[in-house]
Queue: 3 jobs
Job 1
Amino acid sequence: MISTFKIACCSFLIAVSTGSSSQELFVTTEPASNMPKNSIRVRLTNEGVNESDLKSRNSLGVMYGLSSDLMINANAYMADFYQRKQRISGYSFYAKYRFLNVDNVQKHFRGAVFGQYTTVKFPIVHDEINLAGENNGLQGGVVFTQLMHKLALSGSVSYTQSLDKFAPGHEMMHDNAHNSFVYTLSSGYLLFPREYKNYKQLNTNLYLEFMGDSHTGSGRNFMDASPSLQFIIGSKLRLDLSKRVQLWGNMERRFKNLYLARIEYNLFNVF
């Protein structure tokens, strides 16, 4: 597991050292850039862990570009992490507004603010406040993304507030640590094509992302790393594969190592 992670990290560093530009369709985090106006993105994600048997969570997401600066996103989650059969576990709603847009030749810089609300039927008892279908909560933050030719860099800081204490029977969840700061650093590199000839070319992107979380009260924290490989077919169909590994941490979590597989389809100029 760790050896695979080291190989992916080395491959990313070699790619960056030999190239000059990138993509910013990050797999684990969201960039500051937005979807095109009047476009729809449909996303199906499967993530899980192989313990004594395979446990996974599935999510269906639909995103819409209201304008060039504002997009919204709704997700539904199903999981069998804590029972034998898949069942609907919750929903989330996300919005992002781009407030900064600086364009130059073959590069740009973006800034955006974002917010998310998640509601779940069966909150999970652990330190981590996970708004991807496991806990009730709110999140708000800011993200900045720099694109330089084939290389993209992005970082975000956000504040997460758990709402599980308002769910009957779950008042003492998270060891009274009901809020946390989340911070991310993402990098992406366009491997292929070397030169663009038309929009039908297969795009291959390599990513390395870091995700950290710190409770404001207890001082517990963790840091994860996620190498990913991405394929974009005909500028509309997107395939993501990634592995998430905990680098360090003292926060109680149900799963510290997860795989992710995703398929996504984009519809442009819908209305």
Job 2
Amino acid sequence: MTAIIDYGVGNLFSLLCSLKYIGEDAEVTGSPGVIDAADRIILPGVGAFGDAAEKLRKTGLDEAVLKAAAQGKPLLGICLGMQLLFDESEEFGLHKGLGLIPGRVIPLSRLPGWDGSLKIPQIGWNPLAIRRPSPLLKYTKEGDCVYFVHSYYAADCEQSIIATAEYGGSVTAAVERGNVFGCQFHPEKSGKVGLDILRAFTELGRGNGSAASTAASNETPCGSGESKGGASLC
């Protein structure tokens, strides 16, 4: 079972719907007990880093996430959830993250080579450049497009980067460190490509993944392929 952590921020319905569409047993939960019993954990998130980090700690769910990661359970952070995996963020001040992946979160405007010609936030579809093999990207091809909505990006994390995207510079798109993974983009809003990434994640720790290997068709569940509408910044 995959637990989707509910700590008051995140597009939980689209994510839950996408997981059920690919045949995964999933549950939205704010219970440390349910998280402890889960096979895999997803940490979603939209909004500002500081607010999300505070909510995560006030609910005690930061400890549940850290415990699951220490136990070796596959953990996937999505959008702001990925950013929370890092050491710290400079969004509206300096805020401490979970420290599961070395690095920090800084404004897109500080990308090396940024010339200010592109809008911030980045909102839209971008092709992925695969930097190294990863089980999270086992069904993903070079140039597959995914959907981004963000104003900040993960920096100083070169050893963990598995995919990047170009947006006025090389943006960290996906990361991996042991059993901890992150996507800056929204797989639940990225059509078939995103469904395949979620499918690859749900197969972690279950051998050949036959229980969750329902092929994702070109259809997208619950409007998961929309290019705009209801998007929140991270």
Job 3
Amino acid sequence: MRTPAPCIRMSAVVGHRGAAAVAPENTLAGLRAAAASGVRWVEVDAQSCADGGLFLMHDDDVSRTTDGRGLVWRMSSTKLRECRVGGAPVPSLSEAMKEARALGLGVNVEIKTPAFAEPERVARTGRAVARLLSEYADGVRVLASGFDQGALAAARAASPDLPLAWNVDAIPGDWRDVVDRLGACAVHCLDAPGNHGVIPAVLASGHGVGVYTVNDLNRARALWAMGVWSVFADDPGALVDKSPDAGVAIPGSRR
């Protein structure tokens, strides 16, 4: 069994894709909106393009969130930068990390890879994200997460001290085997009834749990009462003042 890396506990409310209900998702404007709301952590999505550049983007295709078209995986950095989201170029992951550092935000970077991606390219993406995050580890609280176990395993190999979380819509019966194999310190899952019965076991094992996407205060309170560490919210400002962190002046904690 692999010894988990030191685990950083995110705040009780995490801005989802920055602050997706308040500003364009996965943008520098979204990070600023999240910081203005008082939230301490944000989640962003990172993908690699054809030449290996790392950019913020949730979908495989840029058409939903930008004025461009095409698959991120097959676009050059130059072509991707020509796409505009909220009037600004698609930000690189490095730009986002610099902005987060200036704003004092912790960042959960979700490593995104398309279903059709070849395993070696998935691994390269995981390694690239991990190495970039390691460059900012002294100035930004960081956590890498993702659904693709290959990407997470590559991130772990590239940066053994990087905290990891495994993302899964439905927590499977072998969750403990997976998190131990990956050296993950937390599970991030969908707010779904099927997960609610498993969450206590994950927490009892000493692993953290984050739940997405939670935009209702009553749901957030029920999850916090269950012991959930973090909820991911599109409008973090609507929850942050009512969260267990309200009034607590510590930026984050490790165990």
